[in-house]
Amino acid sequence: MWEYTDKVMDHFLNPRNVGIIDDADGRGEVGSLSCGDALTLTFKLGEDGRISDVKFKTFGCASAVASSSILTEMIKGMTIEEAQKVTNQDIVERLGSLPDQKMHCSVMGQEALEAAIDDYYTKSGKARSPKQEVKVICTCFGVTDTEIKKVVAENDLTTVDEVTNYCKAGGGCGGCKMEIEELIKEVQGSRAKIEHVVIEKPKKLTNIQKIQLIQQTINDQIRPMLRADGGDIDLIDVDGNNVIVAFRGMCAKCRMSEFTMKDVVEARLREFVSDDLNVTEQKDSHN
Length: 287
Hints:
By secondary structure, the protein is an alpha+beta fold. It is 45% helix and 17% strand. It contains 11 helices and 8 strands. The protein has helices spanning 6-13, 62-75, 80-84, 88-95, 103-124, 145-155, 160-167, 177-188, 207-227, 249-253, 257-272, and strands at 26-32, 37-45, 51-59, 136-138, 143-144, 231-239, 242-248, 278-281. A 3-stranded antiparallel beta sheet has the order 1-2-3. It has a 3-stranded mixed beta sheet with strand order 6-7-8. A two-stranded antiparallel ribbon has the order 4-5. Strand 2 and strand 3 (51-59) form a beta hairpin. Helix 4 crosses helix 5 (103-124). The relative contact order is 0.11.
């Protein structure tokens, strides 16, 4: 059970400025239903050039709702230039705090605001500094090198686990962890704490050993990731190299879970158990 501040609970239970502005001057959409968090933020400027109205819609946990809600209160009345300076740490400070595993929700709010401001500049035809070319590092969650370096620098992160908490990069199949380490070293230099561990898979497994290792991998590597966003997973059966699982909670309700979550689970099992495993999802008739 996460420990939330009173401010987080207030904004979760009584979110402010929920909705969509149809004729918005700026609209930002970040995240995706596939990873359990998605946010749309829209704003309208008044005649004085300040943000006169701002609304949000989010699909996510209590932290996502609270971060989005308080962000709308923070930027209302700001100029575009002032809103551009809002960081995810500003959001967290206004909320009192967030659990480490939920810091990515504050980052998502900042990214939605940035996307909405980009949209405003595009619509208005006003000049803005050109963006640098970006490379997608974490394909599971679509996180770029620029986004990773930004959260590392702004939040003084030094480990891959911290990066995962802040932007989810590395939280899927794990195949991008070495690249994340290199980005941390690029930003932090000698302060980077590199703890990459190469895990060797057993060369040959009995059926019982395979099932035990699959269950262990689900418990240690997959379930914590899903629970962090209100989901869960059950191992239903193992038929040869076919692993049958069922998603629960938010993962089961997500329209894209069959495509993305299955791939993430399959990648983890192939990484830690055997390269020839395939994952099949058993649909829950109650969802």
